[in-house]
Predict the structure.
Amino acid sequence: MSMFSSLPLVGFDGRPVDAARLEGKAVLLYFSTSWCGPCKRFTPALRVWYDALVAEGEPLEIVFVSRDKTPEEAQAYMKDHMGPWCALDY
């Protein structure tokens, strides 16, 4: 059994994401929220960094851990500001 198999992951659309996509990759947990000014300024830089590393073939996944007040806020933040990352289910 995978060490990630029990993680409840979702995409920005709220649909489940198979945790197997994390296997064999460096996994970065990104704690953030849509109402945090510094977070909103940092997220685009993180996305550029992520996109560059993945384009070079680096095995990297980012998992968003939301501190938003509702699942809808978290999903909107992911959709509008993040890359093809997944998130821990709200």
